[in-house]
Design a protein that fits this description.
Layout (H helix, E strand, L loop, with lengths): L11 H8 L6 H9 L8 H12 L2 H6 L2 H5 L6 H23 L7 H12 L6 E7 L5 E9 L9 H10 L4 E7 L9 H15 L4 E9 L2 E4 H4 L3
Parallel strand pairs: 3-4
Antiparallel strand pairs: 1-2, 1-3, 4-5
Helix pairs in contact: 2-3, 6-7, 8-9
């Protein structure tokens, strides 16, 4: 049955307008983005198939053009639209971080980092450089590695902190394994970075581990 024949309060677009985006499932939100389905499938059914195929929104967002376009009904135009939506979301979160003390808006920081890191098939180590008022100066991808290991060099991190004249840093990296729990190596690395940066009066304010929709904060664990 076409979505236009559904009861009005069950159609994704009307449901969003009446009850807000939070009331919709992932598939319903994605269906609004897709707008139309394919032969024999509504947009909601197509959205469900997409989420099942990719294993969720995070993996769908992280898919490359070839992988995304290979799915029946998708193509370069839809891929470009999806990347534009993601870029706008990232920029909006980055603006929110830059406009205020990051410690007063930890949710924006966490959401920004999760949106950038969740679903990647390789490890990425990022740094959020802050001034002495904890406002964002820059966000950089510092190191990139394999599924299991990223080589992070404290000396290079110190050089980047000095280049930005940073007073503080928030680190983040992802676990492609899907397990957000920090390893002993993660804790050891954080201690090494904290010690190296303290020599140039730069504080490490947090280290986030991102795995899919999960995130762990070292500061919340009392490890900094």
């Amino acid at each position: 049955m076409p979505i236009t024949d559904w009861p009005e309060d069950e159609r994704p677009r009307e449901k969003l307008l009446a009850r807000g985006a939070e009331a919709l499932t992932d598939a319903e939100l994605l269906a609004i983005f897709l707008r139309v389905g394919v032969a024999g499938k509504t947009a909601v059914e197509l959205a469900r198939d997409l989420l099942t195929h990719f294993g969720g929104l995070n993996r769908l967002f992280a898919a490359g053009q070839a992988e995304f376009s290979a799915f029946p009904g998708m193509g370069p135009a839809k891929y470009a639209q999806l990347q534009a939506v993601l870029a706008m979301a990232k920029r909006a979160l980055a603006e929110e971080m830059r406009q205020r003390d990051t410690l007063s808006s930890p949710t924006a920081v966490r959401d920004f980092l999760r949106l950038n890191l969740a679903g990647l098939g390789h490890e990425v180590f990022m740094g959020v450089f802050l001034d002495t008022q904890n406002r964002v100066l820059a966000v950089e991808e510092l190191f990139r590695g394999s599924l299991t290991q990223t080589s992070v060099y404290p000396r290079e991190v110190v050089k980047r902190a000095l280049a930005h004249n940073a007073g503080g840093l928030i680190f983040a990296h992802n676990h492609p394994s899907g397990v957000a729990e920090p390893s002993q190596a993660d804790r050891w690395l954080t201690d090494q970075l904290k010690t190296a940066l303290a020599l140039v009066d730069v504080k490490v304010l947090d280290h986030f581990i991102v795995a899919g929709s999960q995130g762990v904060s070292f500061a919340e664990r009392g490890w900094l």
